[in-house]
Amino acid sequence: MIAAGGTGGHLIPALSVAGELMRRGHVVTAVTDRRGAVLARRISDIPVREVKAASPSGRTIAGKVAAGVTMLAGCAGAFRLIHGERPAVMAGFGGYPTIPPLAAAQLLGVPVLVHEQNAVLGRANRFLARRARVVATSFAETRPAVARRTVTVGVPVRDAIAALNRVVYRPPGPQEDVNLLVVGGSQGAGIFSTLLPDAGQCLDGALRRRLKVVQQCREEDVGRTTAAWRALGVTATVAPFFEEMAGHLAHAHLVVARAGASTIAELAVSGRPSVLIPFPGAADDHQTANATVVVNAGGGWLVDEKKADARSLAARLESLMTSPAVLTRAAGNVRRLARADAAVALAEAIEDLAAGNGCACRVLKEQEA
What we know:
The protein has helices at residues 8-23, 34-43, 61-85, 99-107, 123-129, 159-162, 190-202, 205-210, 222-231, 245-251, 261-270, 286-296, 310-321, 324-335, 342-354, 362-368, and strands at 2-3, 30-32, 48-50, 90-92, 112-116, 134-137, 149-152, 178-183, 211-216, 235-239, 254-257, 274-276, 300-302. The chain is α/β, with parallel strands linked by helices. The protein is globular and about 65 Å long.
């Protein structure tokens, strides 16, 4: 049984591991909240169970009390679910919806693995990690809470994106189209819908005519974002969700994105240079920590949203899009961060927990060595 929060950053790695486990002949069930269930059923055929969950970080006392009541109801429902299905292992991938099922699993003696996608351990995972058998991290820089075992495995990505690890990056030629991919995460980034077209307007006219944009944004922003690019004479494909993200990554010369863990993993595996604009409201500023790993590796550039404006972003984009050697070097650098085998490594850890062999799995032995 796998549990994950309701965003793509939590769900996509979880479902990638679930797919690997199913290929190995295991029966897998996903557990998430209502929002996550909608997304999970859209991108996977794995059975999904819903639990009630809410963030306890509300500003008012009434909000905190309401969240507490919801979480208690979620824990009761999760206890009944897990007591009835008795999974061999419970693997959690972060987010508040993982607290009820993982807490219930721990009470019922089901071995628990916690996977942290970000460079900073999330709040839900900090709460759960101390009683987990294994904490699996995505970055060597992550400092997990005390657990019986810790292993760095990376972030699992979808099979089609993992396959891009074998595709060589090719920068745009002097007269060729420049393919810009803009990704705001599974929930979109409202500021990108204004900032990117405004930056496009500030680009040199000749470069703007070569620009081809694929932009993911919130559903309510699709119309105005499409119109803004059209007014600039830029060919743009705009949608709230792309089923074929692997194809868009494969064609991208440069990516502008948030810095969620799944996005970072996909950029690394596919070897795409990026301008990263972390979400400033992310818990514990984990997106900046993620982006810093990429920047330190020489694989991308960090822009502070609070200081970003159209003109400065345009200058950055223009400099990069006209510097093929710089883009190629960054593509090679970010690829060094890739763990294309992350789903396999996690599946093996989960299998060994299921076998009840004290977590002495191949992955853990390799790290200890």
